[in-house]
Structure formats: structure tokens, C-alpha cells
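Appendix C. Worked example: Molybdopterin molybdenumtransferase
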Amino acid sequence: MTEMISLEEAQALVLANVAPLSTEVVEVLDAVGRVSAADLASDIDIAPFAHSAMDGFAVHAAELESASEDEPVKLDVIAEIGAGEVYDGPIEAGQCVRIMTGAPVPDAADAVVKYEIVGIVSGDGKPGSRVSFTAPTKLRNNIREAGEEAHAGEVIVHTGEVITSAGVGFLAGCGVLQVPVYRRPKVAIAATGSELIDPSEVPSAGKIRNSNSLAIAACAKAAGCIPTILPIVEDTYEALEKTVLDAVETYDFVVTTGGAANGDFDFIKPVVEGTGELLMTTVNMRPGKAQTFGLVKGKPVFGLPGNPAAAYCGFEMIVRQALRKMQGYSHFNRPVVRARLSQDTKKKDPRRIFLRATLTKDDEGYLVTPAQNQSSGLFGPIQRSNCMAIMPEGLESRAAGSMIDCMLLDVSEEVLI
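Step 2, the predicted output written as C-alpha cells:
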């Protein structure tokens, strides 16, 4: 396959050729941000008992029906219940019990009146005191009921649900301390190019630092994966073939950068075709037209361009979606908002163009400002951008004030806008 396809076709093609990975069991704290691979149930009622929502006095609501400012109802405080304590005794007419937040509400009481609105007639509000109430209270007022949040055996997190920070606390409270989740993909990243040197070295004439591997590894890590940077691959078919064949034996997904076009030293397409099944070579987008995808020994192999911005866009638009699917996520597209262009923007390329840009907000809504330098060879504009301003296919330029779509780069796919 050599014809150029749309971005949506490319995304669908890659997603169709990956599947969620096997599962593993992790500690509940390590499950944050990951996708549950099973329905998780509580082992007890949450809350396990009816308890007070605040510091106050446990009472019979019926006794306060006539309470008013002019004729307060006065009750004797006969006991005090702290958090972790239990009071099983009776509460007779004319009596109440001092209770703290979180303490079990006695069976003999049916409401709690908060401390701040109760008057002290005598004593200090503790047992032996006499207190007054100047207003009625509702039945079960300020009581958090047993099983209010979950019942024993009830599913509290469903398969496919992303576990949040609050979810970790919810699971812990429900006794779920071991969580089955989809495994994180192990991603091999290999930069190709005889001109490349390690970033720790100072380039001599004709050499450049290998920044792509670090950037793509960072993208993979941000997508929840476990990246491994392989040694730089020299510009020969044999070297790249060996790297790919070795990588698919160990890793879940292989990403190369460079050598994705049609030059004399561009080998990722023939390597994938020669060792497996070549499924895609070009995508109607800029930057990042040259995008190679295929399967080698059943493992997905993706060849990104060598230009930094082109490699980044290819990863964010296509590879990231595949890696999320492999982790069990169900949302694959970054949120998109409509924004006003802050300046005239010319279009001389019919492909869909992704402009590195900065999104701000004013009284009229979102305003987007494309970076001045849109060279595909630069990482800097991406570092200073928070969105991709999208210029649709065609040659239509846009004037300042025009509305265009902007894909947010710093917002999770789970956020619906």
C-alpha cells in the first residue's frame, strides 16, 4: 500500500491492528490513571454503619417539633460518642447524646443537630450538661446512612473504567487493595541516521544530536507506556532489519524515527514490507506526511519521519491512540475547541496542516496564536505551544478572527469539551 490516506483512515487502520494487552495485578496506589480490567466490588457496606456527618447532638427528631426561639426545647446530655466509639444505651424522653463527626449514630436516635446551633443551658455541653434547641430538625438530619455509597458485593468500579486519585481512596475504603489492570505497553524506540550521535556528545561537522529518541520516549511515557531507547541505527537496510526483528521479539510496539520517506537511505518501508506486512506509508497531513505502519511477526511497527515536529505530530495523532487502546482506554481523541485566529494565516499546501500554537482565553472566548516559525525541524515551538491549530484540507487561507478547530495538547482524552 503506497497511496496517501486521510488522518482518520490512518487512525482507524492502526487502531484496527492493535488490541488491549494482557492484564496484571497491581497495588491500588499504582492503579491510578490506569484502566480496570475487571469489575471491582466492595467487601462491606460503605459506610459500614450510620454515622454523624458533623459534631453535634444525637436526638429524637419528634422531641424538637415544637422548638422555637421563644420556647426552646431543653434536653439533658447523658453520654458522649467519639469517633471509633459506640453507645448502645437508651435515649429517653428529655435526653440527648453528644456525638462527634464520624461516630456511629445510636439506634435510639434518629437525627443529629450540629453543635453550633445548640445552646448551653448548664455545664459544658458534655455528659451532665443541659442544652437547648430553638428549631425543629428533620428526621435523619446530618446522618450518613449505612451503605449510602455502596453495598457489600456491589460493583464500585467497572471494567474499562479509568481509576482516578479519588478512585484509589474509594477502592481502599471498599477493601480492594489489589487491582487488575491492562498491562502498560513496552515500546522500543530507535532513531535511524548515520549522522546521529548521543545527546551527551558534542557534534562534529555533519553530525547532530539524537533528540528524537528522547522526545518520542517522553511521548510514550506520557501516554502511560514503558519506553526503551535502542541504540542509534546506521543507514543500512541490514542494520534496520536486525533492529526491528530483534525488537519485535521483546517489545509490544516498535517506533522508529527517520528514514520514512523515499530517499536512497530511507529503509523503514522496505524493512517492514520485507519482514512482515506493510499497511501504510503516507498520510494527508503536515507536518508528518511520511508515516509508515505495518506488522512484523504480529507486532505493530511504526516509522515516524526524522524531522522533529513531523515525528511528534505523527506520534500524537496516530501512535498515541494505538498505545491507549493497548492499555484498555476507550477515548482516543484529544479534546478540540473552536478558537479565533489572532492573525491572518496563509495556506499554500492542500494537506491538513497542524500549526503549533498557543491558546488563550479572553472575554470573547478562545484565541489562538500560531507560532511564528512552523518549521518541521524544530522542537522549540512545540515546547511553547499548548495546542495544534488545524487548517483543513484545501488551499483556503484564513483571516484574523476566523474560527478554527484547535486540538488541546495538555488535556486528557477523557475530558469531554
